[in-house]
Design a protein that fits this description.
It is a single chain. Helix 2 packs parallel to helix 4, helix 5 runs parallel beside helix 6 and helix 9 packs across helix 10. Strands 1-2-4-5-6-7-8-9 form an eight-stranded parallel barrel, surrounded by six helices. Helix content is 37%, strand content 19%. It has a single domain, classed as Phosphatidylinositol (PI) phosphodiesterase (TIM Barrel, Alpha-Beta Barrel), CATH 3.20.20.190. Strand 2 and strand 3 form a beta hairpin.
């Protein structure tokens, strides 16, 4: 099984299926993740929130926004709904909001069928997801997982329970304390916006020992430019376009 460190040290750039293959199927749904698997993405990315914060047994559900209205036919906050209520919604083309466990099962099934272990990037979105993801991972079989977040306090909460799973700090703009933050969390890399991925910034981060992954790129030409700059991973909604380009 390929470790995250092995993937980050592989020569060249690799593709990360953003919310599955969000340009080809409804984002963060099982059909979207299946499309990314079919296209042989070496890693997929997803976002997690907690359903029904009032319940004792909180459920990690896969959805990007804290509100339901953009990606489903529901309204209100994800956290105010029970899992059953969320499962009654249409997340696009009839697909449901999946749980994190369901996506993990999909990855396991893919490995059994095709012998390909696809790494998983779990992005912490909702409040309290750091602790819940750490507890969830402790019960799961060994798998190449990296946990990321813009909210570095959630990553710190994650680290209180899990000192070993790789984490990546997310930045949408330059911060003077980026290196201190990455080091304090023992990050294996940094994930940055396309606008931040200038040559000097990529070199600074890479030379400090933090491989750079960039979001979100759907243009093969731009992806090739990033590869030339030394970017390691590229998040994309269109792995069908970027995988052939980067493999050429």
């Amino acid at each position: 099984m390929c470790a995250i460190s092995d993937l980050l040290s592989t020569p060249g750039s690799f593709v990360i299926g953003h919310r599955g293959a969000a340009g080809l199927a409804p984002e963060n749904t099982l059909p979207s993740f299946q499309r990314a698997l079919d296209l042989r993405c070496p890693m997929i990315e997803l976002d997690v929130h907690l359903a029904d914060l009032r319940a004792k047994e909180k459920q990690l559900v896969v959805i990007h926004d804290k509100k339901l209205s953009r990606t489903t036919n529901g309204k209100g906050l994800v956290s105010d709904h029970s899992l059953a209520e969320l499962r009654s919604l249409d997340a696009g083309e009839g697909a449901l909001i999946p749980t994190l466990a369901e996506v993990f099962s999909l990855l396991q099934s893919h490995e059994r069928r095709f012998g390909q272990t696809v790494a998983l990037n779990i992005e912490l979105k909702g409040e309290g997801t750091g602790i819940e993801v750490a507890q969830w991972l402790a019960k799961m079989p060994s798998w190449p997982v990296v946990v990321s977040a813009f909210n570095h306090d959630e990553l710190r909460s994650f680290r209180t329970l899990d000192a070993s799973t790789p984490v990546a700090t997310l930045f949408d703009k330059y911060r003077k304390d980026w290196l201190e933050t990455a080091r304090s969390l023992k990050a294996v890399g940094v994930n940055v916006s396309l606008k931040l991925a200038r040559q000097a910034m990529v070199e600074e981060m890479s030379e400090a020992g933090f491989p750079v992954c960039v979001y979100t790129v759907n243009d093969p030409g731009v992806a090739l430019q990033l590869k030339a700059r030394g970017v390691k991973g590229i998040f994309t909604d269109r792995p069908d376009l970027l995988i052939p380009a980067l493999s050429a």
